[in-house]
């Protein structure tokens, strides 16, 4: 089972799932995107962005089945 945590994103509560030590991905939000927290090793800080399911599959090599 994946580790999870709740996070507030502009007033909308999302569940974030830990994919790896440096990557957390949320369930799909109403805007059909996922909130992604990833650690940037060049800047040594966490970066929060949103991606579509297709972008996550391509960028992070994470199956869409894991994101459901």
What does this structure look like?
The protein is mostly beta strands and 68 residues long. The protein has one domain. The protein contains one helix and five strands; from the N terminus they run E-E-E-E-E-H. It has a five-stranded antiparallel sheet with strand order 1-2-3-4-5. The longest helix has 8 residues, at 53-60.
Largest sheet: 5 strands, antiparallel
Number of helical elements = 1
The strand count comes to: 5
The average pLDDT score comes to 92
pLDDT under 50 segments (min length 5)? Answer: none
Report the principal-axis shape: globular
Helicity level, as a percent range? 10-25%
Short summary:
This protein has 68 residues and is mainly beta. It is 12% helix and 51% strand.
Layout of helices and strands:
Elements: E1 4-9, E2 12-20, E3 23-28, E4 34-40, E5 45-51, H1 53-60
Antiparallel strand pairs: 1-2, 2-3, 3-4, 4-5
Provide key terms for this protein.
single chain, 68 residues, mainly beta, 5-stranded antiparallel β-sheet, 1 helix, 5 strands, 12% helix
């Amino acid at each position: 089972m994946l580790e999870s945590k709740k996070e507030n994103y502009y007033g909308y509560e999302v569940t974030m799932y830990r994919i790896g030590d440096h990557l957390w991905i949320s369930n799909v939000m109403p805007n059909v995107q996922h909130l992604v927290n990833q650690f940037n090793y060049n800047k040594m800080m966490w970066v929060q962005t949103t991606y579509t399911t297709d972008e996550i599959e391509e960028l992070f090599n994470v199956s869409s089945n894991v994101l459901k």
